[in-house]
Amino acid sequence: MEGYADIVFFINLAMDFAFMSAAGAILRIRRPWWRRLLGAAAASLVYCVMAFTLPYSAWLNAVAAVGVLGLGLAAAFCPARPIVLGKLALAVYILAFGTGGVVLALGSMTSGRFGGPISIGILAGGTLVSYILLRCVRRYLRATEMKKQAYYTVTVALNGAKATFAGLVDTGNSLVDPITHAPVMVAELAAIQKCLPEPITRLFLDAKENDLPAVLEGFQSGGLAARMRMIPFASVGEANGMLVGFRADSVTVALDGKSKTLPHAIIGICHGRLHDDTYGALLHPAMIA
């Protein structure tokens, strides 16, 4: 049997890069494209050296397949724990077997018999079809996961006034009150405006929430000077931000007939939109634990 090292190398390079990228996307392990290309090139090069220099052996081929893949994954994704590399390897093999099935199916359809000749075109077409199927499955799973997310009914009480809106639990919300270390809920101004005094609402409408003297004056005029909070936060594009907030009389979160009341909960006010009309606040996970 004749083989061309350059063709074998580039085919393996393309397939390894595709599988490593897909496995990383599925497991949400991000690495730059050049790292994935480096890993694919390392695995393909070692495979070619072994395939064209060593005598064929079933056991050697099996061991080499695992070792070569591990080398490529280490070059592409390290530093990473061994269990993470193991998950990546398992994902790569599942994707490879799935793509292999699609390629064999295309080969049998074009040749009229199962196990027909596999050309470069069939290999490329099978990989493309597998990629499209993977994207469709991923979108379906993501949409299903989003539908399962629970939106809580949130009621904020302050000085006899109440505001009710939907809230989503945000696992990335780690804000706490610097004074009491209580968890902080981030709410849109539009959602809690009903229970805020007019001087405080005017602060945000006039875009003065970053003007500390104006904030102090607004909370004093609104009778909430003792309840005012300045909550430090960090986000993309805002390494040392400060969120204006207040201590409510209570916050009640309810879902499926069950409710929980949090006395003296802390609320950070967001002038912009957190999302569309689906929800108006991001709950700290500790608020519903």
Strand line-up in the sheet with most strands: 4-5-8-3-9-2-1-6-7
Task: Give the helices and strands as they follow along the chain.
Answer: HHHHHEEEHHHEEEEEE
What can be said about the biggest beta sheet? 9 strands, mixed
Low-confidence stretches: none
What is the approximate shape? elongated
Number of helices: 8
Estimated helix fraction: 40-55%
Distance between the termini: 64 Å
Please state roughly what percent of the residues sit in beta strands, choosing from under 5%, 5-15%, 15-25%, 25-35%, 35-45% or over 45%.
Answer: 15-25%
Radius of gyration, in Å, reads 28 Å
Number of domains: 2
Task: Please state the structural category.
Answer: alpha+beta
Overall mean pLDDT stands at 82
Number of strands: 9
